[in-house]
Amino acid sequence: MTAPAARPLTPVSRVLTLCLHALLLGLLLLAAGRAVADSAPRAGWVIAACVLLAAVYAAGVRAPVVHRSPRAGAVWLAGLGAAWAGLLAVSPDGLWIAFPLYFLELHLLRLRWGVAAVAVTACAAIGGFLAHSSAATPGAFLGPLLGGAVAVATVLGYQALYRESERRRELIEELITTRAELAAAERSAGILAERERLAREIHDTLAQGLSSIQLLLRAAERALPEGAPALPHIAQAREAAQENLAEARRFVRALTPPDLEHGSLAAALERLCAGVPGPRVRFSLSGRPRVLPTPYEVALLRIAQSALANVVRHARAGRAEITLTFMDASVTLDIVDDGHGFDPSSAASGSGDGGFGLPAMRSRAETLGGLFTVESDPGQGTAVAVTLPLPLEPLDAMDPVEAP
Questions:
Q1: Burial call 105-124: b when 16+ CB within 10 Å, e when fewer
Q2: pTM of the full predicted structure?
Q3: Cα–Cα distance for residue pair 147/149, rounded to 1 Å
């Protein structure tokens, strides 16, 4: 059978097509050869009918429109049927051509029309045999009918296997795509995590150390009497520390997560809520916003991202809300959803479906001296809250210390 032109032939389809061509050609040669060998009175008519049937078949096989258009395929089958009826009228051997016709009808027509065409072809084959034979035997009826049944079962089985093969192919393609996306996501997450780690290390070690050196040098300047020989060296050392502190600050800004590069934490959280697929997420800001150190902003943004990822993947929520609250001595981030909830104790113990998300969020908060809480019950939604104490100096500790 020839597959539609829209999809290239597979090796199996190509072999089946060649087998069908060979079967039809062999049966036509058999009918013509027997007519010549038996010196049948209608041998010339039999040969002419075989040639006509072969010509009609070859024309349909070579015409792409037959395989693209159901109507053109039906017209071609009607032409084949007419040529076959002529052969069946002059030779009883034309009966065997019914078998390849079964497969063509089932392939080119819709299933119900194909089965009906097979039934008509079987009846025509039985009628042709009875017209050439005076004795009606059970084999004259069972042969065409069983052949038609075998053809229908074979085609249905092949179609079922083809559909299963297509489903598996789609699943494999989806698996490959998902694996590539997962690898890209893991690579991106690793890069972001390393950027955060470097920014935190530079901020907590080099920058804080340089800031302390500046304060100590400033105290030394004040303690020394005016005109002391060491004053120029101390001033030079303080200027070098200030320059290096500014350079460290540029490093941290370069390593800041992309979401925080072009705005405040509140703006980054608002963009995050707007881009969440699935549930409706609303962001609200409470209190007077203050400038937070970079590690605070990074921690709060990552906790919000992780919590919203849990809402999308696990909570089956319709709505969620993120609230950022600035108070006198602390900043609080609340993420609340109306999903189906869970048992926090089972998630914390690892007995549930919870992964690394909650422990990672808790670790981020506790690293900065904060408090992380989760409130949830099955069917009651989930509330995640993180509270971080504000540093004594609200400005970023990495800002250069100006000399009085």
A1: bbbbbeeeebbebbeebbeb
A2: 0.41
A3: 5
Rounded to whole angstroms, the Cα distance separating 38 from 20 reads 27
- The DSSP code sequence of 172-206 is HHHHHHHHHHHHHHHHHHHHHHHHHHHHHHIIIII
Phi-psi region of 315 (alpha: psi -120 to 50; beta: other; left: phi over 0): alpha
Rg of the chain in Å (alpha carbons): 41
CA dist 16 and 12 (Å) reads 6
Q: What is the pLDDT of residues 211-228, one digit of tens each?
A: 788 888 888 888 888 888
Among the residues of 292-335, which ranges form H helices?
294-310
The tokens of 325 are what?
């609250």
Torsion of CA 128, 133, 136, 142, to 10 degrees: -50
Encoded amino acid at 317, one letter: A
Residue 259 pLDDT exceeds 70: no
Euclidean distance between CA atoms 150 and 385, whole angstroms: 68
